[in-house]
Design goal:
The complex is a heterodimer of chains A (115) and B (111). Chain A has strands at 5-7, 10-13, 19-24, 31-37, 43-50, 65-69, 75-79, 88-95, 105-106, 110-114. Chain A has 115 residues and is mainly beta. In chain A, the strands form two sheets. In chain A, strands 2, 4, 5, 8, 9 and 10 form a six-stranded mixed sheet that branches. A four-stranded antiparallel sheet of chain A has the order 1-3-7-6, with no helix packed on it. In chain A, 33% of the residues are buried. Chain B has strands at residues 3-5, 9-13, 18-25, 32-37, 44-49, 53-57, 60-65, 70-75, 84-92, 98-101, 105-110. Classes of the chains: A mainly beta (115), B mainly beta (111).
């Protein structure tokens, strides 16, 4: 497909378990962002990858959250020892300033529920 | 910190015009975006302003005043399908790559 894809679409886990969320950006997009959106709230920035540069992790809420991007493409967001307040929709977006427009293209999100 | 303010909710009538305001205070400025988000869906891009003035795109227009830290999204000839949240986002930072979103304005269009 041509768009940003994320998996899984839904994830239900028990408190204390680790989860991994995956994002496949649009091919050729150098920038990749992770956001979190709680019910009825705005988007909360988590982490940003640009090419091969070190990621900007300034938005990660705690050291339980980490992300990596392998080969400049696919990204994985990992949440360790999940808590109930981690329940939210996790959105991934990609963009390419060099070859395309300035906008970010969002994936469908992963809805995480921590019981 | 970065601060972006927009009204939480607005209501308008089908066929009317509505203006959604956004004010911002950020460390640097490299452009302002408006996104539309229908309930349960991902945000989709509407507009991008980097210079002062009005950008028109069909029924939607977006205005920017950098000196005032102010933008608005204007929706004309409202349709029921325009009921959605509208997100204002500002690109900022030394490298111009950080994007901070406002809390969104939920617009309800009534017949």
């Amino acid at each position: 497909g041509a768009g940003v894809s994320q998996s899984p679409s839904n994830k239900v886990t028990e408190k204390g378990k680790d989860v991994e969320l995956r994002c496949d950006p649009i091919s050729g997009h150098t920038a990749l962002y992770w956001y979190r959106q709680s019910l009825g709230q705005g988007l909360e920035f988590l982490i940003y990858f640009q090419g091969n540069s070190a990621p900007d992790k300034s938005g990660l809420p705690s050291d339980r959250f980490s992300a990596e991007r392998t080969g400049g493409s696919v990204s994985t967001l990992t949440i360790q020892r999940t808590q109930q307040e981690d329940s939210a929709v996790y959105l991934c977006a990609s963009s390419s300033w060099g070859t395309g427009g300035p906008e970010q293209f969002f994936g469908p999100g992963t809805r995480l529920t921590v019981l | 910190g970065q601060n972006i303010d927009q009204p939480t909710e607005m209501t308008a009538t089908e066929g009317a015009i509505v203006q959604i305001n956004c004010t911002y205070q950020t460390s640097g400025f490299n452009g302002l975006f408006w996104y539309q988000q229908h309930a349960g869906e991902a945000p989709t891009f509407l507009s991008y302003n980097v210079l002062d003035g009005l950008e028109e795109k069909g029924r939607f227009s977006s205005f920017l005043s950098r000196s005032k830290g102010y933008s608005y999204l204007l929706l004309k000839e409202l349709q029921m399908k325009d009921s959605a949240s509208y997100l204002c986002a500002v690109k900022w930072g030394n490298a111009g790559n950080m994007l901070t979103f406002g809390g969104g304005t939920r617009l309800m269009v009534k017949p």
